[in-house]
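Collaborator request log, item 7. Partner lab (contact: R.S.) asked for a structural prediction of Beta-amylase to inform their binding assays.
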Amino acid sequence: MQVLPFTDKENAALANYVPVYVMLPLGVITSDNEFEKPRVLRKQLKKLKKAGVDGVMVDVWWGIIETKPKSYDWIAYRKAFQMVKEEGLRLQAIMSFHQCGGNVGDVVFIPIPQWVRDVGEYDPDIFYTNRKGTRNQEYLSALE
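Returned to partner:
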């Protein structure tokens, strides 16, 4: 059994520790799949690390990654992920299969992939539809 060099009080605090993750800005990867402002992000990551944050969370937008069916482009996200690693932070990647933005005050807009929206032109039932029959093209319907 390894004995940690902590007091009983410190061990008790660590046993109840909850990791702290901070969400990265929505537009860290642009809708054109570009790593936006890497110098600014690196500076922010350094500040987060210094503040004792455990890691960061980033949305991985379907509309950026899969612009063609079964064709995935991770290059901008890989650059961002590498930077997070270099700064000694952990990463939570949240796979976001819905549209980003489009509401009042939103500054980032990333729709679901165009090829999916094209399919929706012929089969609108792929889009979420509420009980009143209102369709929403920001995300897809659940399969039955």
